[in-house]
Write a structure and sequence with these properties.
The complex is a heterodimer of chains A (548) and B (234). Chain A is an alpha/beta fold and 548 residues long. Chain A has helices at 3-19, 30-34, 37-48, 87-98, 113-116, 134-139, 144-152, 155-165, 177-186, 207-214, 216-230, 244-259, 290-297, 326-338, 340-345, 377-383, 416-421, 440-454, 460-477, 483-499, 503-507, 510-529; strands at residues 22-27, 54-58, 70-74, 77-82, 193-198, 234-239, 275-280, 321-325, 347-348, 351-352, 354-361, 367-372, 392-397, 404-406, 430-435. Chain B has helices at residues 21-27, 79-95, 110-117, 153-162, 197-201, 222-231; strands at residues 4-8, 11-15, 51-54, 61-62, 73-75, 134-135, 141-144, 167-170, 177-180, 207-209. Classes of the chains: A alpha/beta (548), B alpha+beta (234).
Chain lengths: 548, 234
């Protein structure tokens, strides 16, 4: 397919979408499927499929905790959202809507904050398009940025545009994406690779899954633009094994894109070729670390190696390799379409663009939301409907590698530097809100046990350190510790941060150091008073009790 | 051929391109304690005992894998480093079962020597003692996982020098075990040549020669062996 044909096909797809009139979409993301969305879609198709309205599956609409979600569009504009649908409710809701009755069962208020207050850039098409149809992606502008890039821009210009946008890696560390691309583009060697890191393993993180399940073409388009910019002809998407639906949809999207000439040899009739393959992880958190991820792709034991050399110089099979996170690639297409100035205008200085968060824990609405960088943490909690079961105590950002933000810092703008200053990290975007019933040493214990399980075992500080820190936290939670244990705990955490080989070990103590920083009195209460101020560890049946 | 200059512990030191900080320091008589490192094998950077401070870097780096750079300012000994090294060795001592009294390497063990060198007279952490297994299926050698510190010298020597690749690591984290072939008993290994280089390379008593006599280790100079190999000598 040449670019003129693509434009023609996109136009047709758009016209079809507009002609559909009333369109009913049922979210087919994995949380909604788990809640019974497939039955809802089946029933709606049986009831309304033959009529003038269009019933379709779609990607994630955001409030995953309220699934199955249903959305009704009129002339391409969303007009109504419905939550917690059963097949019967869904039919009744659509029937009521068609009769002009605004209040069908389960209808969300038009200004429902979780949906209304989002700034959707990366997730713009999630919930709008059918993730299993290329036509649907084309109708909402999918792949037009690739056409624009390879027809009108040189690879250098693409790199320059990404650099100018100020986009930073969304995987957690916030490295300038443009700089990474330029480094790989300038690296010697003919064979280069692009990799998408979709090994999203942090507890409480499900943003990348949402994008892959809801709009796989967006990710592939971003990778294709990156490959064009750096001069790579082979790409890999490394999807964690726990995401079978995401992998299946990616594979389907790749096959459809290849058939349409958007991937494969001589893309859009130009000299640029790219093959993208999906690789499935085998269940190791450490494979989210880029060197371990590459080892896993190459069929080796998934454990990190010392950097430098960085993947940009010495990556897959010794070649220069570009690795970005799912969300980073998700930013590329709108960035190229609308220009770097547009992208930079979103967010705050030094932190341009948006960030997708998966908010969970003690909040009213669990789900995926996208906001401009620099939005205060308080707004995120408000969008999720506020704290349930008590008052706000802390929010854990960055999962097991991050720290917690206490109530006093609720107005902190969520950006890379502000979170780092508070001893946490942006991380990939998992956010776990905790109410005042939560015991912080217990929270730290949970994350440390996670890191102990996930340590690869290569370096001693991480392998043995996580074991000892876990045991110390068990002692503290169990009420068997003394004050010297607290010093030992802190000392070990600092050692792990200083001396571990890779990011997993360096960041593993963050949840402990964070809770120690803001909630030290809780640790001391466990030790001195032998009691748990939140009544989590004190009870006989609590998970902390009676453990070695 | 020395082509760059760096400062190690206040001394100007010359080093060849591609040399590591550890190599540069040792060639000038500056001692840096190591554990997983063995000259002649690819450095691993796993034990982190050889960490040094480099000016301008936020955290210590392992000297065995970090290349010397022109103008680098390195500190090999400071209170912070000594404390970190002590803690790492204590962590290793507490991780499995290092009961020197019943160890064939008592008195010749690199871990024991290092602990003495670092002035460790007690361990501040709980002994985990995981009750790891012992494999004595091989006719001449034995493997006691309780004494293993996972330095992977055996893996590397078997892979890089003998070329048999009998050893590898199975499991992860605390459950990591050195395994022969596909986690089969050593005695049934189809690839093991019985050369004993792994036993020679092992810093502790994890790999030992069977029999009443104490295992003598370090009788092969791997560095020289690698040099001969490179020159194509038998």
């Amino acid at each position: 397919m040449r670019s003129a044909e693509l434009l023609d096909r996109m136009k047709k797809a758009r016209e079809m979408l507009a002609a559909a009139g009333t369109r009913v979409s049922v979210c087919m993301g994995s949380p909604c499927i788990a809640a019974g969305a497939e039955a809802v879609l089946r029933e709606l198709r049986a009831m309304y499929g033959g009529q003038a309205i269009h019933v379709t599956g779609s990607g994630c609409m955001g409030p995953c905790g309220r699934g199955p979600l249903l959305r009704i569009d009129r002339n391409g504009e969303p007009t109504a959202f419905y939550e917690k649908m059963t097949p019967a409710d869904a039919c009744a809701a659509v029937g009521a809507y068609l009769d002009g009755n605004a209040n069908g069962p389960g209808r969300l208020a038009p200004d429902f904050p979780f949906i209304a207050r989002q700034t959707r850039v990366v997730l713009a098409n999630c919930g709008t398009c059918d993730p299993e149809s290329l036509e649907s992606a084309l109708a909402v502008g999918g792949w037009s940025a690739l056409a624009q890039a390879i027809v009108h821009l040189t690879p250098e210009e693409v790199c320059a545009e990404v650099s100018a946008s100020g986009l930073r890696g969304r995987g957690g560390a916030g490295f300038p994406t443009g700089l990474k691309w330029t480094t790989v583009a300038k690296a010697q060697g003919t064979q280069k690779y692009v990799i998408c890191n979709a090994d999203e393993g942090d507890p409480g993180a499900f943003m990348d899954r949402t994008l892959m399940e809801s709009d796989p073409h967006r990710l592939l388009e971003g990778m294709a633009i990156a490959a064009y910019a750096v001069g790579a002809e082979v790409g890999f998407v490394y999807v964690r094994g726990e995401y079978p639906l995401a992998a299946a949809r990616l594979r389907r999207a790749i096959a459809e894109a290849e058939q349409a000439g958007l991937l494969g040899r001589r893309i859009l009739g130009r000299g640029f070729s790219l093959t993208i393959r999906v690789r499935i992880g085998a269940g190791a958190f450490v494979c989210g670390e880029e060197t371990a991820l590459m080892a896993s792709i190459m069929g080796r034991r998934g454990q990190p190696v010392i950097r430098p050399p960085y993947p940009a110089q010495h990556g897959l099979w010794g070649r220069s390799t570009l690795i970005n996170n799912v969300e980073t690639y998700g930013c590329i297409a709108p960035l190229i379409r609308n220009g770097s100035a547009w992208f930079k205008a979103i967010g705050s200085p030094g932190n341009s663009g948006t960030k997708v968060f998966s908010i969970s824990g003690d909040v009213d609405t669990v789900g995926v939301l996208e906001v401009a960088l620099g939005t205060p943490l308080r707004h995120l909690v408000e969008m999720a409907g506020g704290v349930t079961g008590g008052t706000f105590k802390a929010a854990q950002t960055g999962g097991a590698s991050g720290g917690c933000i206490p109530e006093g810092h609720l107005d902190t703008p969520v950006d890379y530097e502000s979170l780092t200053a508070l001893g946490s990290i942006m991380g990939s975007g998992g956010m776990i809100v905790m109410n005042d019933q939560r015991c912080m040493p217990d929270v730290a214990r949970f994350f440390m046990n996670f890191c102990q399980d996930e340590s690869c075992g290569k370096c001693a500080p991480c392998r043995a350190g996580t074991q000892q820190v876990s045991r110390l936290l068990e002692r503290i939670c169990g009420g068997d510790a003394d004050l010297a244990d607290l010093d030992r705990l802190e000392e070990l955490c600092l050692l792990m941060r200083d001396a571990s080989l890779c990011g997993l070990g360096m960041a593993a103590p963050n949840p402990v150091l964070g809770t120690l920083r803001w909630f030290r009195e809780e640790y001391e209460a466990h030790i001195r008073g032998g009691r748990c101020p939140s009544n989590v560890c004190e009870r006989e049946d609590s998970p902390c009790h009676g453990l070695p | 051929m020395p082509r760059l200059t760096l400062t190690i512990d206040g001394r100007a030191v010359r080093a060849g391109r591609g040399q590591t900080i550890l190599q540069a320091a040792r060639s000038h008589g500056i001692a840096i304690p190591t554990l997983c490192n063995l000259e002649g094998l690819t450095p691993l950077g796993g034990c982190r005992v050889c960490i040094v401070e480099v000016e301008g870097r936020p955290r210590p780096v392992p000297s065995c894998t970090t290349r010397a750079e022109q103008g680098m300012v390195v500190t090999t000994d400071s209170e912070r480093l000594a404390a970190a090294r002590r803690m790492i060795v204590e962590l290793l001592l507490a991780e499995r079962n290092h009961t020197c009294a019943v160890c064939v390497m008592n008195g010749n063990c690199e871990l024991q020597t290092l602990a003495t060198y670092l002035g460790i007279d007690h361990v501040r952490y709980g002994f985990i003692s995981p009750l790891a297994s012992v494999d004595i299926s091989h006719e001449r050698f034995g493997m006691d996982h309780n004494r293993c510190i996972l330095c992977r010298r055996c893996v590397r020597v078997c892979n890089e020098i003998e070329g048999a690749h009998t050893w590898d690591v199975g499991g992860r984290g605390a459950a990591s075990r050195i395994i022969s072939d596909l986690a089969e008993p050593w005695g049934e290994s189809a690839t093991c040549t019985g050369c004993g280089k792994c036993v020679q390379a092992c810093p502790t008593g994890a790999l030992f020669e069977k029999g009443a006599v104490a295992t003598r280790k370090g009788t092969i100079c791997l560095e020289r062996l690698v040099e001969w190999r490179k020159r194509g000598e038998p």
